[in-house]
Amino acid sequence: MATTSDHNSTPNGGTTVEVRQQPPPLPNFLNSVKLKYVKLGYHYLMARMFTLCLFPIVALIAVHASRLNLEDIQQMYIQLQYNLITVMTLSGAIVLGITTYLMTRPKPVYLVDYSCYRPPDSLQVKFDVFMEHSKLHGGFNESALDFQRKILERSGLGEETYLPAALHKVPPEPSMATAREEAEQVMFGALENLFKSTNVNPKDIGILVVNCSLFNPTPSLSSMIVNKYKLRGNIKTFNLGGMGCSAGVIAIDLAKDMLQVHRKTYAVVVSMENITQNWYFGNRKSMLIPNCLFRVGGAAVLLSNKSVDKRRAKYKLLHTVRTHCGSDDTAFKCVYQEQDESGITGVTLSKDLMAIAAPFGEALKTVKPSESNPWGRLHS
């Protein structure tokens, strides 16, 4: 590390003062967004190392083969007759190497199709109906009602969003039974459309991943799907909860890893949220924001590692990148389920939420369009 110094001496031969300029601190590479893409490039390099090593060998053989004449070929044939054991051993090693490569190479993952659930029109909630029901409930004070009205006007939501049937009633009837009804309508509605559009038999599904943050009943949501469609007994099921909006990407990543292990099978990912039992009836403003933003909805995705599905698949999964910020207390508490002063349970959205999300938004702006989208389109 280089330092610069200045020496100053007094006219009377006094002491010399040495001033050293400290070097600038090194950047924190661990917090650099580009470090993730260095790791991604290293992963691609290691995954294709065999191909990269094989290419020079093939090129060298092709160059030597282009220089051979007929006499050289005849001489090689005579040598092979006298070294049959060596030739068979070498051929076996080549076949074994190719087989190992084909068995261990990453398998492509295709998105065959997806389906989004659309509730019936009877569950649409207009802004004026939303505010009228909030007033009739009687639990919101004037400040809370005015705050919800402002959030609705600035949220960007339209007049065609949906609320579950239990919240349309006056007074609302949130219960375990009505929450199950909402979950069944969303999950089964999306899956019915998915199976119909892809002509896939539910019994062919080998992997099932369901994510829902706030509603995790027993039996689980994945078990509800298995029971509904009588899926096979050796299916691999996963139920993700408490992971917020990132759970959809995590579910895709989990399904991708499972498809690398289990050959020639389908994976279904169901992503949804349930708000029947998680509607907030208190007056803390940070907990009222989810009431104005979250609505009924869900989606189901069919993934496949079968080569025959490449022709009909819409996308191919190129890569997945996830950065976990749970070690940061600010990020950890920006979306937090808790009780307010009156003991009413709700989800708090802190003011730091946008600050936490902003760096990742900026990161997406800096990468190439092909890198910011993990799905490569196969067909229009």
From TrEMBL:
Pfam families tied to this protein: FAE1_CUT1_RppA (PF08392)
Residue intervals passing through the bilayer: 42-63, 84-103
Disordered: annotated segments: 1-23
Reactions this protein catalyses: a very-long-chain acyl-CoA + malonyl-CoA + H(+) = a very-long-chain 3-oxoacyl-CoA + CO2 + CoA
Superkingdom of origin: Eukaryota
UniProt keyword annotations, A-Z: Acyltransferase, Membrane, Transferase, Transmembrane, Transmembrane helix
Compositional bias (Polar residues): 1-19
Domain FAE: 101-359
Keyword Transferase applies: yes
GO biological process per UniProt: fatty acid biosynthetic process
CDD domains referenced in this protein's UniProt entry, alphabetically: CHS_like (cd00831)
GO cellular component: membrane
GO molecular function, one term: fatty acid elongase activity
Protein name: 3-ketoacyl-CoA synthase 17
Species the sequence originates in: Artemisia annua
